[in-house]
């Protein structure tokens, strides 16, 4: 069954808005797991606008499920991964100035960079995943760089879901099948929510993990965190 990893970036965004410790991220992480999350995801960006370097070290010892650290693989990121050894490192090709992640890796053009970084991260004993667009060629490229998994970048799916969900899922299914046949695990994330999640996992039931943050935190404002996590888990069951 597909696991739910809760991305806690947005809790840190709210905390940082006032410079204090409310909400307390440590309590949030503990509660997400207590309420059923099967993983915790963070994306510590260089400007520390949400997750800070200190947060990474504070959160790591608490996580009893799967800790996933996302980010662009610069020296800072590699140090965080090396020193915290999460269950998974998800490599994202974000520049430092983006509002949010907005594209997947070109796994062909970046073959040598990715091969080198993935080998290094694997030498720390950490599973790797790389963020990719729904493009079969990118999945083929991913298989060549030695990653354990790919994460399908689902923004296009989320945007086009209302217009024509069957058309929206097509490139994802093709890409996921190529990745699966190449022996890779499949993750998915970005803009997944309570309206589109069930369809995604019905059509691609072999997705190992979804990481969800923005919509889940927005839903929690209305339904509460415990109910919201349960609602997301229900979509996955
Ligand atoms: C890698 C990815 O898909 C992103 O969703 C990311 O984790 C979100 O980052 P922000 O919370 O900074 O928008
Ligand atoms: N990897 C995707 C993620 O962690 C959360 O993305 P979003 O739900 O905040 O769009």
UniProtKB/TrEMBL annotation:
This is Pyridoxine 5'-phosphate synthase. The gene is pdxJ. It catalyses: 3-amino-2-oxopropyl phosphate + 1-deoxy-D-xylulose 5-phosphate = pyridoxine 5'-phosphate + phosphate + 2 H2O + H(+). GO terms for cellular component: cytosol. It comes from Mangrovivirga cuniculi. The active site is at residues 43, 70, 190. Catalyzes the complicated ring closure reaction between the two acyclic compounds 1-deoxy-D-xylulose-5-phosphate (DXP) and 3-amino-2-oxopropyl phosphate (1-amino-acetone-3-phosphate or AAP) to form pyridoxine 5'-phosphate (PNP) and inorganic phosphate. GO terms for biological process: pyridoxine biosynthetic process. Pfam families: PdxJ (PF03740). Its main location: cytoplasm. Homooctamer; tetramer of dimers. Belongs to the PNP synthase family. GO terms for molecular function: pyridoxine 5'-phosphate synthase activity. InterPro entries: Aldolase_TIM, PyrdxlP_synth_PdxJ, Pyridoxine-5'_phos_synth. It comes from the Bacteria. 3-amino-2-oxopropyl phosphate binds at residues 7, 18, 191, 213-214. The keyword Transmembrane helix does not apply. It is found in: Cytoplasm. The keyword Flavoprotein does not apply. Keywords: Cytoplasm, Pyridoxine biosynthesis, Transferase.
């Amino acid at each position: 069954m597909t696991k739910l990893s809760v991305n806690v970036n947005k809790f840190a965004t709210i905390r940082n808005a006032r410079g204090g410790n409310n909400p307390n991220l440590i309590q949030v992480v503990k509660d997400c797991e207590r309420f059923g999350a099967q993983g915790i995801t963070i994306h510590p960006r260089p400007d520390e606008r949400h997750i800070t370097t200190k947060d990474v070290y504070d959160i790591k010892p608490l996580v009893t499920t799967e800790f996933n650290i996302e980010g662009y693989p610069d020296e800072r990121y590699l140090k965080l991964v090396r020193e915290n050894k999460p269950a998974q490192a998800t490599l994202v090709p974000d520049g430092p100035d983006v509002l949010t992640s907005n594209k997947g890796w070109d796994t062909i053009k970046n073959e040598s960079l990715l091969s080198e970084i993935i080998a290094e991260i694997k030498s720390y004993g950490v599973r790797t995943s790389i963020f990719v667009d729904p493009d079969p060629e990118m999945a083929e490229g991913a298989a060549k760089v030695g990653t354990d998994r790919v994460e399908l970048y689902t923004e296009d799916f989320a945007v086009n879901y209302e217009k024509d969900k069957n058309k929206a899922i097509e490139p994802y299914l093709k890409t996921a099948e190529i990745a699966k046949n190449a022996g890779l695990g499949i993750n998915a994330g970005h803009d997944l929510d309570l309206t589109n999640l069930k369809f995604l996992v019905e059509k691609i039931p072999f997705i190992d993990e979804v990481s969800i943050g923005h919509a889940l935190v927005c839903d929690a404002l209305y339904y509460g965190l415990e109910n919201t996590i349960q609602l997301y888990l229900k979509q996955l069951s």
